[in-house]
Amino acid sequence: MNFSSGSLEKLEKTNNESLEKLFSFVRTLITIGSGLIAVLVSLKSKSINSKETNLLFASTIAALSLGILFGAILLYQDIRLSDKLEKKLSNHISKELEANRPLIFFENASAGWIFSFSKWSMIISFSISLLLLTFYSYYSN
Predict the structure, then answer these.
(1) Are 122 and 67 in contact (CB under 8 A)?
(2) What would the pLDDT profile of 46-98 be if each residue is shown by its tens digit?
(3) How far apart are CA 81 and CA 79, in angstroms?
(4) Nearest to 33, CA basis, from 132, 126, 141, 140
(5) Which residues, other chains included, contact 77 with Cβ-Cβ below 8 Å and sequence gap of 6+?
(6) Nearest to 107 by CA among 13, 21, 7, 8
């Protein structure tokens, strides 16, 4: 397969932009989730002692916390992937320089199943927390 350098650069640019948007979105969700936990905990009424509302409150906090945790794992995967690519590129450069060949490098690095698992777990956790928060606000009044 013959790739022109312009095609590879365009692919790399598109991929980097897509990942940057995803990670920006994840950072935003983590910030919102953390702020929501802080607000919920600080404004929780002590006068509501219903078993159902306490369970909904605890479940909401747990789901938000899981969303934040999976989001942090997802962000860490970006760092891990960059390190993996850097090592592969270093090895490639060393081999090419030893053989006196031109430096042509194309590597499709996959983040693996943890990346996909973390992404979908984060989305599901935040979605569940939104539903639980809705039920909590309804039953707490």
Answers:
(1) yes
(2) 776 788 888 999 999 999 999 999 999 998 887 887 777 777 777 767 776 67
(3) 5
(4) 126
(5) 111, 112, 114, 115, 118
(6) 8
**Backbone phi, then psi, for 78, in 5-degree steps?**
-65, -45
What are phi and psi for residue 46, nearest 5 degrees?
-85, -10
pTM given for the model: 0.76
Whether the CB-CB separation of 68 and 27 falls below 8 Å is answered with no
Place of tokens 């707490």: 140
Q: Which amino acid is at 15?
A: N
The tens digit of pLDDT for each residue in 36-60 reads 999 999 988 777 678 888 899 999 9
